[in-house]
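ok so for the tutorial part 2 we go from a plain amino acid sequence to predicted structure tokens. step 1 is just haveing the sequence, like this:
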Amino acid sequence: MHPPESRLNPPGRPFGPSRFLNQRSFAALGLAGMLTAALSGCNTVVLDPAGDVARQQGDLVIVSVLLMLLIVIPVMAAVVIFAWKYRASNKDAKYEPDWDHSTQLELLIWTAPLLIIICLGAVTWTSTHLLDPYRTIGRIDHETAVAADAKPLEVEVVALDWKWLFIYPEQGIATVNELVVPTGRPLQFKITSSSVMNSFYVPAMAGQIYAMPGMETRLHAVMNETGVFKGFSANYSGAGFSSMHFAAHSVDDAGFAKWVGEVKASGKQANTGQTADAPLPEAPAAMPLGGKLDRATYLQLEKPSEKVPVIRFSAVDPELYGAIVDMCVEPGKMCSSEMMAIDARGGLGKAGIRNVSMLEYDKNGRQAGTDATATPDAAVRKELAWVRALCRQIPGAAPDGTIKAPTDMRSLNGAGLAAPQSIGLGQEEARAPDSVSRPAHVSLISRN
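step 2 — the prediction. this is what the tokens look like for a chain of 448 residues:
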């Protein structure tokens, strides 16, 4: 019969705590091995991209991390060293309870972080200006500068719900959820959104840039390697956000020219996708490939839909992108630039109380109002012509030369008008005191 202690610690087996530590060590080693195997299959595209701008951004991340590690590693090492040196079992450690100051140590503690912060600040300042997305790139890669006569490829990007529209103004084509660019050529992206704030991001090419309605952001970049890369939205934008991605193809010049020719010659059909919050129809609506992307087609395309396949348009309205940014694609909608031009001249005055149907911007909530302004009466057309003649600085006549400007512009510039009063729609204005100047022209747009 074994003694009690032999039952607790059999021969050849470590005593309780040591055995537990060995088991934990083996488990930790096994977990580390599995993590290493799993991470070996990861594609670190941010640190190994295909575009020079993204590569410079990746280098900035590495340099910043290394600079910070100059502080982090010594601090972590000091924690371990001090904990080991001043452990309770170390009888040789010098115990100094009254020690509270060391000039040399204070200089080291404050000087080292200060130098790191100065270096990080210098790197951040220079990189912020050098990698400004609005700044045209100065090089193709670290060995090749951009030629003086090099013309960047311009791509107009529109974030829709929930898909991406790419317009190539120089080539006169457009695509949905398909971006194709030539390798080694400067790229200029003009980015906007049709409804909500979004984010355009191709990690292999450059950093993410926000897409916002009613304004335009820009991105300059270049691709240095051929291949197919992932692009997606990096900003939550609703129900179809998770499937709002596209393939970014980087091809050589010959491949790009061939692709442009294929888009212009295309004539098949493509599913426009499933409408959000609606069951999948048995025969989904089709949009013609090879057709023209005009305003009417765009208004159908911008309706919320998910998992939209690639769609190609062999022609595109050259003024479409400008109308999207100006928020006036819909028929009869006043453009944002026209509103700002009116405001810069003093506004519409009291007449503007009723002039709201053309100014309200709602994608789907006021379809009836949009339908009404699509077929305006003569009075509405006349006033709209006056406003646009003024906004476009064409004195005395409408752009088509058929309608003259009003003789009294006070209703357009707000000169001498009293503060707005509560007036019911369609009612005549009460006579104002003689001391108040009244507009000779009253807006009729919203009375349609």
